[in-house]
Design goal:
258 residues; Spore Coat Polysaccharide Biosynthesis Protein SpsA, Chain A; 11 helices; 9 strands
Length: 258
């Protein structure tokens, strides 16, 4: 069973070598790693050239969603995933992933646990247990564990690729469409390390994130529940410095609930 990892990249030379090496540090032989770079100018291409096993391109694109779709079209694996260029996989987990798909032929999509780290790689916190399924995504968009998700290539043919109009919550939209048709299998094992820092897209584009989340739920004909509206309102208010202080006073510190 061949696993293909797609990594979209743009000017992430500070982190991408860690990402590449994390894919190399696995216990499964049949692995294809595709890096789709958007024309980086920070030395990323020099790093890619150091690893002859990579399949990679470096050319201007329209953003992360476009890059991931390019990678999906290049992929030859039985199982697919995408890993952003500042995240990493846990060591020696691909064997368990491939084993799960092999022993569960009806499984189309699976996920595992996730560990949040800072920009230096220091562990911040873990999210474990069965917290990601279609019902939970209807209630809370932060349940997505994108770096810890793997799926059969047939799933992309069934639901389509990434919505290229989205730039922040492309993962939420993809997994909502997947969850509407297929179950989420859970593997009780930490699979990925998600880098969580102030310059990361999920933090720096908070207001755009809220607008995209709202649009994704509307596009998928999902009603906004009172609980979901509270989450979106809190995210939006906290995107302003004074709003963050206000929400901390009202509710206390709130971290991501992935």
């Amino acid at each position: 069973m061949k696993i293909t990892i797609v990594t979209p990249s743009f000017n992430q030379g500070m982190f991408i070598e860690d990402t590449i090496r994390s894919v190399m540090r696995q216990d499964h032989r049949e692995v294809e790693h595709i890096v789709v770079d958007g024309g980086s100018t920070d030395g990323t291409v020099d790093i890619l050239k150091k690893y002859p096993h990579l399949r990679w391109i470096s050319e201007k694109d329209s953003g992360q969603s476009n890059a991931i779709n390019k990678g999906f079209r290049m992929a030859s694996g039985d199982v697919l995933a995408w890993l952003n260029s500042d995240d990493m996989y846990e060591e020696n987990v691909f064997g368990a992933v491939a084993g799960h798909f092999a022993s569960h032929p009806d499984c189309m999509l699976m996920y595992g646990d996730i560990t949040f780290i800072d920009r230096t790689g220091k562990k911040l916190f873990e999210v474990r247990g069965r917290t990601m399924d279609y019902a939970s995504l209807l209630e809370n968009p932060d349940r997505v564990r994108q770096p810890s998700c793997f799926w059969r290539r047939e799933l992309v043919r069934e639901i389509g690729g990434i919505d290229e109009s989205l730039h922040v919550v492309l993962d939420l939209d993809f997994f909502l469409r997947a969850g509407a048709r297929f179950r989420f299998d859970y593997l009780a094992k930490n699979l990925s390390l998600f880098r969580y820092y102030a310059q990361g897209k999920s933090l720096s584009l908070a207001r755009k994130q809220v607008r995209e989340i709202y649009g994704v739920y509307r596009k998928n004909n999902i009603s906004l529940t009172p609980g979901l509206l509270r989450i979106l309102t809190s995210k939006y208010v906290r995107s302003f410095p004074i709003g963050d202080r206000f929400m901390r006073f009202v509710r206390g510190p709130v971290g991501p609930a992935r």
